[in-house]
C-alpha cells in the first residue's frame, strides 16, 4: 500500500499583529519535517513571519450547522485531560484563500468542553466554523529573528513571481472594435 | 585593486557561480519527477535560490569586467567552465541528490559565514543575501540525511552508496583555485583550510549520527577546475541548445 | 462523526436539499461537516481531482524545457512556474481530501489510467516557444475557468482557487511577454512563435470542454454554484480576450473562419474538431502514454523514499513513547 504520509494542517501568520490562519495542508512524515514542508509550500511568496502545523486528525471541527444541530461529540482519539486548547474561528463567507483564524486559548478537559468555553469567550462575531486544537499537538516554527530571516524574508526578493514584473505591452480589447482606439490600462 | 587580485577574484566568482548553475541544473532535472509533491516543490525552491545565487556571483564579476551573465552561462564551453566535479555527477536517486545537496550546503553555509566579513564590500553584501537562504537549505537537507540514514535498510544502503561515491569528489570544494591565496591575503575570501576542518567535523558527526560510515578510502579527489567529468559536455550541450539555436537572437 | 452526504432515498432529503440550495443562493459557503447531497460531493471529487491531476501532469510538458531555458532568468521563471503547478495540485488534492477521499486513492486512480486530466497536456512541447505559448494560451484558458471556480460554493475548493488565481497571473504574463518578444524578434524567433501558436490555439479552445448542449453535467453544476458559467461562455470570453491580442502582435491564428462580430461584440470561431478532442481524451493523443508513464515512474522510484520517512517517524514515535 502506498503512503503519501499523514496530512498536517498549516497555519500561517502574515505579520506579527495578525492571527495565524489556516492556509491548507501538507503531507509530511513527522513534526519537524511538516514544518519544513509547510515553509516550502506556503512561503514561496510573501508574507509570513510564523507557521504552525497540526496533524489533521488532531483537529476538532464544528460548522455552524453542526453546532445548530447539537452535534457535539467528535471522535475519541484524543485522550481527554485538562489542558489548553487553541481556538480557531471563521466568521465570513467572503471570498478568501484562508479558512479559520486563531482567536485565542481556553482551558478545558475535552475538546467538546473547549468548544463550549470558546463559544462563551469569543462572542464578538458569529462563528461559521470552529476548530479546536489541543495545545500539545501544535508544532511551531522557531520565532528567532534568524529563522524568520532565513525562512520567510527571501520570498520578498523573488519578484519574478509577481505579475507586475512583466511589462507586457498589449492592447485593450476595445481597440479592436471598429473605430475606437483606447490605450491599454496595464 | 591590483590587477592580479582582480583577475583572481574574477576567477573565484566564476567558480562560485558555475557551481551553482550546474548544481541547479542537476536539481532541476527532478522538477516534475520528485518522490512526492511536497518534495518536488521543496527542491524547486532550492534550484531557484541557486540560480539566484549564480546570478549574484556573475553580477559581481560583471562589475569587475563587464561580462554578461547569460553570455557566461550559455556561451562558454566545457573548457571555460570552472565548476567542481561533484556538481556535474548525474542526478542519481533521491539519496544521491539529497546527500550531494547536503555536502554542498554545509560547505556553502560555512563559507558564507566566514565570507561575511570580506574586505570587498560587494561580496560581503551578496553574502548577507545568500546566507539567509542557505541556512534553510542546510536545515532541510540535514533533515533528509538524518531521515534516510535512519529510515529503512534500503534508504540507509542507498545513502551509504551515495556517500561512498561522493566523499572524494566533495573534497574538491576545499581546493583553492590558482591565485586564491592572493584573495585570502587581502581578506576578500576566507581561507579554505580551516573551513575544511569545520566541514569535516560537522559532516562526520551528522553522517555518523545518521548511521553512515565514512569511506576509509575516499578514492579519486579532483584537484583542478580546468578539467571536468565526462558529463559536463552533455550538460552544456543541452543547457545551451536554445540560446545557441539562433545566432542572430539578441534577447530571449 | 456522522457523515452527512444525503441521497434521495433519505426521508428528509427534499427538505434538506431545499435548505442546502437556499444556503447557496444566499452566497454561503458549504464547509466540510455540513450536510450536502452525495451527488454534490461526487461531482466535486470528480472535478477537483481531475483538476489536481491536470496540474500534476501539466508539470511535464513545460518541465521538459527547464534544462534548455535560454537565459538564467527564464530558467528561474520556468522552475517557479512548474513548481507552482505542483503547488496547485497540492492545494487541490487538499480540497478533495476534505470530502473524505485520500490522496493515495486519487493518485492510484490517476496512475491506473482511470482518472481523467486536462487533455491539453497530451500534446508535446516541440520548441522553446511552446513554453511562452502555453503560458499565454493554456494558462489564459485555465485562468478563465479558475476565476469562475474561485466563486464556487464549496469552501475548500473556492479557497484553493483564490490562492491559485493569485499565483497564476504571473504564469499568463510571462508567457505573453515571451511570445510578444519573439513576435518582434529575429525571423527564426518569429517563425518559432507562430508555429507554436498554430499548434496550441485549437487545443486551448478545447480546454473548456464540449459545447453546452453536449455537456451533461453543466446544469446541476451551475444550480449548485460549483460552476457559474457554461463552457461556451468561458470559451467565448477567452477568445474575445486573446484573439485580438495575438493578431495585434502580428501573428496569425489557424482559423480561417475567425471574425469579429459587430452585433454581439464577440470573436466568432470556426468549427472545433471534436473528433480530435475525444481521441485525445480517450487516450490516443500524441503524449498520453508518455505522460502517464512519467508519472508512474516517478511514483514507483519514490516509493522507497516515502517508506523511509514513514519508518523514521515510527521509530521516533516509539522512542518518544519509551521515554
Task: Indicate the topology.
The complex is a heterotrimer of chains A (186), B (252) and C (323).
Chain A: E1 7-13, E2 21-27, H1 31-42, E3 50-55, E4 60-63, H2 64-68, E5 83-90, E6 101-108, H3 111-121, E7 129-134, E8 139-140, H4 145-151
Antiparallel strand pairs in A: 1-2, 1-3, 3-8, 4-7, 5-6, 5-7
Chain B: H1 3-28, H2 37-65, H3 69-74, H4 94-115, H5 121-150, H6 153-170, H7 180-185, H8 192-209, H9 232-239
Chain C: E1 5-6, H1 13-25, E2 36-37, H2 38-63, H3 72-97, H4 103-111, H5 129-149, H6 155-183, H7 187-206, H8 218-223, H9 231-248, E3 259-261, E4 266-268, H10 274-284, H11 288-322
Helix pairs in contact in C: 2-3, 3-6, 5-6, 5-7, 5-9
How would you characterize the overall build of this protein?
The complex is a heterotrimer of chains A (186), B (252) and C (323). Chain A is an alpha+beta fold and 186 residues long. Chain A has one domain. Helices cover 19% and strands 26% of the residues of chain A. Chain A has helices at 31-42, 64-68, 111-121, 145-151, and strands at residues 7-13, 21-27, 50-55, 60-63, 83-90, 101-108, 129-134, 139-140. In chain A, the strands form two sheets. In chain A, strands 2-1-3-8 form a four-stranded antiparallel beta sheet. Chain A has a four-stranded antiparallel beta sheet with strand order 4-7-5-6. Chain A is globular. Chain A starts with 6 loop residues before the first strand and ends in a 35-residue tail after the last helix. Chain B is an all-alpha fold and 252 residues long. Chain B has one domain (3-213, 222-239): Ferritin (Up-down Bundle), CATH 1.20.1260.10. Chain B contains nine helices and no strands. Chain B has helices at residues 3-28, 37-65, 69-74, 94-115, 121-150, 153-170, 180-185, 192-209, 232-239. By secondary structure, chain C is mainly α. In chain C, the strands form two sheets. A two-stranded parallel sheet of chain C has the order 1-2. The longest helix of chain C is centred in the last third of the chain and has 35 residues, at 288-322. Chain C is globular, with a radius of gyration of 22 Å. The relative contact order of chain C is 0.10. The chains are: A alpha+beta (186), B mainly alpha (252), C mainly alpha (323). Chains in contact: A-B, A-C, B-C. At the B-C interface, α1, α2, α3, α5 and α6 of B face α2, α3, α7 and α11 of C.
